[in-house]
Amino acid sequence: MGDAKVVIYHEGMIQKKSPKGLPGLHKWQSRYFVLTNKSLNYYKEKVDTSSGEAPTSHNVIPLMNIVKCEYLSDKKVG
Protein backbone atom coordinates (compact mmCIF):
# COMPACT_ATOMS: atom_id res chain seq x y z
CA MET A 1 0.00 0.00 0.00
CA GLY A 2 1.27 3.48 -0.83
CA ASP A 3 1.19 6.37 1.56
CA ALA A 4 -2.18 8.09 1.55
CA LYS A 5 -2.21 11.88 1.41
CA VAL A 6 -2.49 13.61 4.79
CA VAL A 7 -5.83 15.39 5.16
CA ILE A 8 -6.26 18.10 7.81
CA TYR A 9 -9.73 17.83 9.37
CA HIS A 10 -9.49 20.48 12.07
CA GLU A 11 -6.95 22.73 13.77
CA GLY A 12 -6.89 25.33 16.50
CA MET A 13 -5.92 26.33 20.02
CA ILE A 14 -6.92 24.09 22.94
CA GLN A 15 -6.21 24.38 26.65
CA LYS A 16 -4.48 21.36 28.18
CA LYS A 17 -3.80 20.71 31.82
CA SER A 18 -0.15 20.92 32.84
CA PRO A 19 1.19 17.67 34.32
CA LYS A 20 3.17 19.74 36.86
CA GLY A 21 1.86 21.56 39.89
CA LEU A 22 0.30 20.89 43.24
CA PRO A 23 -2.78 18.63 43.41
CA GLY A 24 -5.79 20.72 42.44
CA LEU A 25 -3.60 23.65 41.32
CA HIS A 26 -2.56 22.57 37.84
CA LYS A 27 -2.07 25.32 35.29
CA TRP A 28 -3.80 25.26 31.92
CA GLN A 29 -1.48 25.64 28.91
CA SER A 30 -2.45 26.73 25.39
CA ARG A 31 -1.42 24.33 22.65
CA TYR A 32 -2.09 24.36 18.90
CA PHE A 33 -3.61 21.06 17.76
CA VAL A 34 -3.85 19.73 14.20
CA LEU A 35 -6.13 16.72 13.58
CA THR A 36 -5.35 14.77 10.40
CA ASN A 37 -6.53 11.47 8.96
CA LYS A 38 -3.36 9.87 10.41
CA SER A 39 -2.66 11.61 13.74
CA LEU A 40 -3.36 14.29 16.30
CA ASN A 41 -0.33 16.63 16.49
CA TYR A 42 0.22 19.40 18.97
CA TYR A 43 2.61 22.30 19.16
CA LYS A 44 3.45 25.04 21.67
CA GLU A 45 2.37 27.73 19.18
CA LYS A 46 0.34 28.12 15.98
CA VAL A 47 1.89 26.46 12.92
CA ASP A 48 1.46 27.15 9.21
CA THR A 49 -0.67 24.45 7.55
CA SER A 50 -1.43 26.42 4.37
CA SER A 51 0.49 23.79 2.36
CA GLY A 52 -2.16 21.23 3.37
CA GLU A 53 0.19 19.30 5.64
CA ALA A 54 0.94 19.39 9.34
CA PRO A 55 4.59 20.19 10.12
CA THR A 56 6.61 17.48 11.84
CA SER A 57 5.92 17.33 15.57
CA HIS A 58 7.40 15.33 18.42
CA ASN A 59 4.00 15.51 20.09
CA VAL A 60 2.04 13.03 17.99
CA ILE A 61 -0.83 10.73 18.86
CA PRO A 62 -1.15 8.18 16.02
CA LEU A 63 -4.73 7.32 15.07
CA MET A 64 -4.17 4.07 13.15
CA ASN A 65 -4.62 1.83 16.22
CA ILE A 66 -7.69 3.50 17.73
CA VAL A 67 -10.59 1.07 17.94
CA LYS A 68 -13.09 3.04 20.04
CA CYS A 69 -13.90 6.71 20.71
CA GLU A 70 -16.21 8.00 23.41
CA TYR A 71 -17.87 11.42 23.61
CA LEU A 72 -17.29 13.42 26.80
CA SER A 73 -19.32 16.45 27.81
CA ASP A 74 -17.89 19.94 27.43
CA LYS A 75 -17.29 20.45 31.15
CA LYS A 76 -13.69 20.33 32.36
CA VAL A 77 -12.72 17.11 34.14
CA GLY A 78 -10.16 17.11 36.96
Instruction: Assign an overall shape.
Output: globular
Helix amount: under 10%
Mean pLDDT across the residues is 81
Helices, by number, come to 0
Major sheet description: 4 strands, antiparallel
Quote the beta fraction.
25-35%
- The strand line-up of the biggest sheet is 1-2-3-4
End-to-end distance? 42 Å
Radius of gyration equals: 15 Å
Give the low-confidence spans.
Answer: none
- What is the number of E strands? 4
**Which sequence of SSEs, written as H and E, runs from N to C?**
EEEE
**How would you classify the helix and strand content by structural class?**
mainly beta
Kindly summarize this structure in a few lines.
By secondary structure, the chain is an all-beta fold. Helices cover 0% and strands 35% of the residues.
Structure characterization notes:
- It is a single chain.
- By secondary structure, this protein is mostly beta strands.
- Helix content is 0%, strand content 35%.
- The chain contains no helices and 4 strands.
- The protein has strands spanning 8-17, 28-36, 39-43, 60-62.
- The chain has a 4-stranded antiparallel sheet with strand order 1-2-3-4, with no helix packed on it.
- The radius of gyration is 15 Å and the shape is globular.
- It starts with 7 loop residues before the first strand and ends in a 16-residue tail after the last strand.
- 4% of the residues are buried.
- The model has no long low-confidence stretch (mean pLDDT 81).
Descriptive tags:
mainly beta, 4 strands, 78 residues, four-stranded antiparallel beta sheet
